[in-house]
Amino acid sequence: MKIRPLHDRVIIKRVEEEEKTKGGLYIPDSAKEKPLEGKVIAVGNGKILEDGKVRPLDIKAGDRVLFSKYAGTEIKVEGEDHLMLREDDVLGVIEA
What we know:
Organism: Vulgatibacter incomptus
CATH superfamily: GroES chaperonin
Subcellular location: Cytoplasm
CATH architecture: Roll
Subunit structure: Heptamer of 7 subunits arranged in a ring. Interacts with the chaperonin GroEL.
Keywords: Chaperone, Cytoplasm, Stress response
GO molecular function: ATP binding; metal ion binding; protein folding chaperone; protein-folding chaperone binding; unfolded protein binding
């Protein structure tokens, strides 16, 4: 199954969080927080402005991004957890 987000929405797959700290301690699942970083899987066509024009999104598939803690809706695509959110909820693109 393939999913294509509409308008200014993007689909993000969260990055995997580290299992242990730099000091070698293992972090239990109950103490882990969901990462606020992910990889963009798919993007919509763009935001529809008040005058009816479509503004293309600033992010593209493959970008690594930071997003708001409580942003978006969690969805399952092909059995994997993803997050669907608006472009406005993306805080920035991580550049290597």
